[in-house]
Amino acid sequence: MASYAPLFVNANDRRWKPDAIVFNSAQLYGTPSYWVQQFFRESSGATLLNATLLTNSSSSIVASAISWEDSENAKSYLRIKVVNLGSSSVNLKVSVDGLGPNSIKLSGSTKTQLTSTNLKDENSFMEPNKVVPSLTLLENAAKDMDVVISPYSFTSFDLLRESVSMKMEGTDSFSRSSI
To answer: Which residues form the Alpha-L-arabinofuranosidase C-terminal domain (predicted)?
Structure first.
């Protein structure tokens, strides 16, 4: 579960920052804080995995890894979330232990990134999509991969896990499992 307060603010009576959703009588927009909350909402019910972050950059990188199933399509993912608090890009080698050789599908994995070149950037009624996540297909998806983390960014790598059908010993039924 994720929560955020205050959630809504009327643009004509804005007393508090940050808020998640700004509205007036005719329109609304989500703030960057709103979009960060979306990263956590989408993977509720996830299993937190043990993760170790080895990097030669300063303490500007924070990361976590979870295993989750998309409720809309029942596909299993390994999600790696990385925050770069620093002003420079960071080259990161992602290495996932405990997975079989072909456990990550070569297609269907994505990278979602929320970033802006200016830390003071905000969405507004004039520019409601100035700071929003961008979704791209991840072409080098694997249990071992090199990635670049942009400065001042929140990045999520959703690695689609391979599913296999296994015949249960002594029965005529099949079980579907994620590796």
So the answer is: 1-153
Domain count, the chain: 1
CB atoms within 10 A of CB 155: 22
- Asked if residue 178 is part of any domain, the answer here is no
Give the global pTM.
0.79
Residue 115 lies in a domain: yes
Report strand pairing: 47-49 vs 61-69. antiparallel
CATH code of 72's domain: 2.60.40.1180
Place of tokens 């007036």: 24
Tens-place pLDDT, residues 2-60:
666 778 899 988 777 778 899 999 999 999 989 988 887 766 656 777 776 766 666 78
> Can you name the residues that pair with 30 across neighbouring β-strands?
21
Interior/surface letters 156-171, b for 16+ CB within 10 angstroms, e for the rest:
bbbbbbeeeeeeeeee
**Contact of 140 with 109, CB cutoff 8 Å:** no
Best CA proximity match to 28, nearest among 123, 131, 122, 132: 123
Q: What gap in Å lies between CA 73 and CA 64, rounded to an integer? A: 23
Q: pLDDT, tens digit, for every residue of 40-56?
A: 776 665 677 777 676 66
Task: Please report whether residue 58 resides in a domain.
Answer: yes
